[in-house]
Amino acid sequence: MTMDSTHRSPLNRRDLLARGAAAVAVASIFPAPSIAQAAYPSRPIRVIVPFAAGGPSDIIARILAEALYEPLGQSVVIENRAGGGANIGIGMAARAEPDGYTLLATTSAIVINPSLYKTIPFDPIKSFAPISDLAITSQMLSVLPGYANSLAEFIAKAKEQPGKLNYSSPGLGTQAQLTVELLKLRAGIDITHVPFTGGPPALQALLTQTVQLVTNAVPTSESVARQGTIRALAVSGEKRWPSLPDVPTLVESGYPGFVTDTFAGLFAPAGTPKDIVDRLAKATQQALARPEVAARARQAGFQVIGGGPEVLAARVAREVPFNRDIITRAGIEPR
Fold it and tell me: What is the dotted CATH code of the domain comprising 139-235?
């Protein structure tokens, strides 16, 4: 019997199963828009800080983590993974799943360590997707009151006693050490480096007169400088530090182009989807633009940058060779 177009043969169970399997196969070839991506983030985000709690990168990371809850709607949890001159934590972040749920907040170690170590578990450019250039802080060169009233006076003393003066820093290969090593090259002086494991003990070495000069990031030494316990001779930023308006920059002290800020940046593992990176960058810029967040950063010794992925990528590309040049010219042997 012939059936018209308004009638169809009833489907048996075998037909239904076959059609269902075909539908699944088609769906696997042409997937629907990603629900996971659309809902990102759907769980807390981990941010690895490759230093101990209380350091500059930890401070700015915690300020940011709290501020990101509002634009992202998820908690941001800080995980300190110190050790190996920051290589352990940075390497962990480089190997993490590129799904946007493990990020890295680090300072200038990411652009210094490639020239400071013979082998490292990451590539500063290939291993990461830059998210945001968060903030900067300057290095501050200080002496005890009465020892020298200016950087020029300190350099004159160093030239009178070549090889006899010492300076302290928070550690080998830190931006603080490289700042003085570059000053030695630019000024033609010979002073000996005494490294410590952190800013506070480096400062204590000056206070006990173990060294004649200390170089530290502003957050470590700012309060004692303002109290008059130490005398700040210069800061290494492009501009004078807002809370230390009487302290000249190294540029103003006679060294054109001498800028060695320590920066804090937020990165994702390479391969993280661009829409997730863009979402994180936008949320970070929104968070850092809030006046109360910028005020907390300033109070902690940072100036907010809030640049996007392109700004951070440009900084990394610029500072890797810059620091390599200092390390090479200063004769610092890779470890």
Answer: 3.40.190.10
